Amino acid sequence: MKIWTRRHVLPMIPALLVSTGALAQDWAPNKQVTIVAAAGAGGGLDKVARTMAKVFDAKKIVTQPITVENKPGGGQVTGTVEFATKEARNDHKLLIVSTPFILNHIKRDGNSPIGPDQLHPLALLQVDYGVIAVRADSKYKTLKDLADAMKASPAGVLMVGGGAPGTWDHLNSILIARKAGVDTKAFRYNSYNNGGEALTALLGGNGDAMTSDVSSIKQYLQAGKVRVLGVSSAARLADDEVMKSVPTYKEQGFDVTTANWRGVFLGKDVPAPAKAYWGKKVAEMAATPEWKEELKKQGVIYELKDAKAFYDHLKGELNTYTQIYKDLGMAK
């Protein structure tokens, strides 16, 4: 039997410390790379995918051609399930999803068998805050105006959003309704494949209010097409020239704070060298001024978590949102 002494172990430590870097150098893409956004064009996931592709290319971080593929349906379920089942070993495909990835896995009427253990979480890239918006000419001037109308006649106010019931968009709105004393069983909500479709519905008069996020709504607020009644951050977004005057839910009497992360995944069975390569390249991309400036323009918050920290974050959210859905009577 061999006895492992300090003399044997110490020479191994540098090798262990550089193992990830060595793995990353062992592999690189040799053909077109695809970034899959699990939603349609125009929404937050689509923006992440296209911004990643743009920065990867402009900074020569990835030298192979990059294309973006939209896979809408089921509040991210269609794209997520297809990716997990068909692309488990595809080291040339990345998946972009957000908080609904977790919610669809735990809600009672969820139809996603895919959770953090069925994919490889690569990196959390950004955090976006929720908003409630109306058309610029809406009779609802404040969040309280809207909440009072929903309470008086739940069937008389139609909320629209870019996610199925029980997903993050829906949660962002129903938590407000619940705090306002609205009968949530009578709460009217129409879902669309993505935020872009929901916004079209709102502006076209096919909804009274919209649940969304800062990055999806900011340009329309700036253009004078919508009025944002509230934002889900804990404090006003004082550093954002467009959003800084929007009051938080909390300061208007609704004790609700929510945040929607967006992140990138690989197939669960992608070989370790490719996982190491993509982890390194995504971190390099996220550190560029171009990426950070684009996030600022969109109104989202820069936050980067590596594979381990992202996985831990996801497992924590599983516990948190399971309890919220139990409180709402929506858990499995």
What can you see in these coordinates?
With 332 residues, the protein is an alpha/beta fold. Strands 1, 2, 3, 4, 5, 6, 7, 8, 9 and 10 form a 10-stranded mixed β-sheet that branches. The termini are far apart. The protein is built from 13 helices and 10 strands. Helices cover 41% and strands 20% of the residues. It has 2 domains: 6-128 and 260-328, Bordetella uptake gene, domain 1 (D-Maltodextrin-Binding Protein, domain 2, 3-Layer(aba) Sandwich); 129-259, D-Maltodextrin-Binding Protein, domain 2 (3-Layer(aba) Sandwich).
Q: Give the total of domains.
A: 2
Low-confidence stretches: 1-20
Structural class: alpha/beta
**Residues in β-strands, percent:** 15-25%
The CATH class of the largest domain, by name, is Alpha Beta
Main traits of this protein?
13 helices; D-Maltodextrin-Binding Protein, domain 2; ten-stranded mixed beta sheet; 41% helix; alpha/beta; 10 strands; 2 domains; 332 residues
Sum this structure up briefly.
41% of the residues lie in helices and 20% in strands. The chain is of the alpha/beta class and 332 residues long. It has two domains: 6-128 and 260-328, 3-Layer(aba) Sandwich (D-Maltodextrin-Binding Protein, domain 2), CATH 3.40.190.150; 129-259, 3-Layer(aba) Sandwich (D-Maltodextrin-Binding Protein, domain 2), CATH 3.40.190.10.
